[in-house]
Amino acid sequence: MKTDFLNTIGMSRDEIERLLESALRFKRGNDHSKPLTGKSVALVFFNPSLRTRASMQVGIYELGGNAVMLEPGGTSWTLEHREGAVMDSDKTEHVAEFVRVLERYCAAIGVRTFAALKNWEEERTDPVLKEFARYASVPIINLESAMHHPCQSLADMLTIREKLGAGRKRVVLTWAWHPKPLPMAVPNSFALAAAQMGHDVVIAHPADYELDQELLNTSRQLADKQGGSLEITHDIEAAFSGAEVIYAKSWGGKEFYGNTEQETITRAKYRRKWIVDEEKMARTNDAIFMHCLPVRRNVIVTDEVMDSPNSVVIDEAENRLHVQKAIMAELLGA
Ligand code: CP
């Protein structure tokens, strides 16, 4: 049976630890295996990317394989994913054919498909990614969907391990103001993976910006199981106190999906208070600063924090490469 890499929900702590160990072997030059020799991997990007695209292409090359880049609506046809759709509008090809043709050429398919932030109940189910997984008989790798960014979150866990060592840490995921609402994939996956690793996870956000309740419940259960904890607060100063990791990310509130005007008014109230600056970082336990990038300087985080020795964002981005090589080696190795 094929195995997809869609999120980390079903992964055990041991499975995550094994992937991180494998990533470290690639990073340290202790693994020169080429499990993708003679294989191609399709990388399907509905949305822009720097890190994911470049690190996947380089990773596939370094594992001996070939990357096939596709941008639906750009370098390939516009794509419909809804079952039973009458395709008399702007969509030219259905995922049903797209996937089944691609898998005749490729050993796996990576997909980036962001949330449109229009319909929460629908988008929280990751509808586009799910359709890729449904039609494919080769592994589907999530390169950031509406709800999850597991390649990012495992790179984040590796970065925390490298910078602070193994063991339980006080890890703070803090919301930030941004000029436009953003998807929840990164905060969801970060909170989940940090819980799976047994950290004490604190999620700080304004009252109107709750993450998905089901995902929070799952994360809390997993944190408890690993001896960690999960706490939610609307008090940013209290959250920063004693933190060992500050992970900043903006996301749009689920109640505002499809209501951009109201969301913009609500979000504006929080601009000044929710930036990561030196004053807030001074409350922490010499915390490292993390962000998945791209980041808007002096909006999410000040230049002073971004350029401080505690900022690990470039190492974090590098770790995407090593983690994704570990994931592909696991999915496609002999
Ligand atoms: N963090 C991340 O996924 O970066 P890109 O959007 O540039 O791929």
Bound molecules: phosphoric acid mono(formamide)ester
- Numbering strands along the chain, what is their spatial order in the largest sheet? 9-8-7-10-11
Output the CATH topology of the largest domain.
Rossmann fold
Average pLDDT reading: 96
Question: What separation lies between the terminal Cα atoms?
Answer: 14 Å
By CATH reckoning, the class of the largest domain would read Alpha Beta
The appropriate CATH architecture of the largest domain is 3-Layer(aba) Sandwich
Radius of gyration: 20 Å
- The total of helices stands at 13
Question: What is this structure, in a nutshell?
Answer:
Helix content is 40%, strand content 14%.
Keywords:
Rossmann fold; binds phosphoric acid mono(formamide)ester; five-stranded parallel β-sheet; four-stranded parallel β-sheet; 40% helix; 13 helices; alpha/beta; 334 residues
Care to describe what's here?
By secondary structure, the protein is an alpha/beta fold. It folds into two domains: 149 residues, 3-Layer(aba) Sandwich (Rossmann fold); 165 residues, Aspartate/ornithine carbamoyltransferase (Rossmann fold, 3-Layer(aba) Sandwich), CATH 3.40.50. The protein has 13 helices and eleven strands. The strands form three sheets. It has a five-stranded parallel beta sheet with strand order 9-8-7-10-11. Strands 2-1-5-6 form a four-stranded parallel beta sheet, with helices on both faces. The protein has a two-stranded parallel ribbon with strand order 3-4. Strand 8, helix 8 and strand 9 form a beta-alpha-beta unit. Helix 2 packs across helix 13, helix 6 crosses helix 13 and helix 7 runs parallel beside helix 8. The longest helix is centred in the C-terminal third of the chain and has 20 residues. The chain is globular, with a radius of gyration of 20 Å.
